[in-house]
Amino acid sequence: MTAHDTPTLRMPGGGISRRPLHLILLADCSGGMKGEKIQALNYAIADMLAQLAIWDRAQEQAQVFVRAVAFATEAVWHIPAPTPVVDLRWRPLQPVPRGLTNMGTAFQLVAEALAPGRIERRALRPALLLITDGLATDPPGRFEAGLNALLATPAGRGALRLSVAIGRDARSEALNRFIGDPSVPVLVADSTSDISDRLVVASLAVSRMSEAGADRAALADRLFGHGGPGDSIFGQDTII
What we know:
The protein is built from seven helices and seven strands, in the order E-H-E-E-H-E-H-H-E-H-E-H-H-E. It is an alpha/beta fold. The protein has one domain: Rossmann fold (3-Layer(aba) Sandwich), CATH 3.40.50.410. Helix 1 (36-57) runs parallel beside helix 6 (195-209). InterPro entries: VWF_A (IPR002035), vWFA_dom_sf (IPR036465).
């Protein structure tokens, strides 16, 4: 039986079970992330997941499941199985000495996880969060191949795709291409102390923009500050 064949689940007493909301983190573990950066990232992710768990417990319609990919020269699953956010205890990421920032293989892993039949038909739109401190270093054609594979899946193409750039040097056209939505900016953390703040916005976007029937454009205006001076959560720190 595939996920598409799974019958609608009901809670005790006859209520309909909550709809899955799959969040997949793509975390840069290249050599440049060593030291303070990886420590700050691990702290920020753990804090973000704790906030999402609070949101999850209050929901009647959605249940958050988390997976994570760690990428450097190669990409591997850090959390391979969809895990309820309320049950998850974050296991710290470790940087890869002299590891590169190859994103295409990470996209390929996620594409396979989101292939037809791999997630529930009744699931909400997935959310993908890419976090990196550098420009993509993929061999020629590998970034494009991975991104194309991701966008070739209906779930990947329809996913809410967000990116946090650690340091303004990490901002790049590649991150905009991953997001694929001009209304959603790359969130820039100028310093390690900013990472938690940027992941707060990411978690707000996940919780609000993935809800069924959400007005994506209106929510982007509210979260990312296109409505006018003073409306942005981060003001000039968001890059469109």
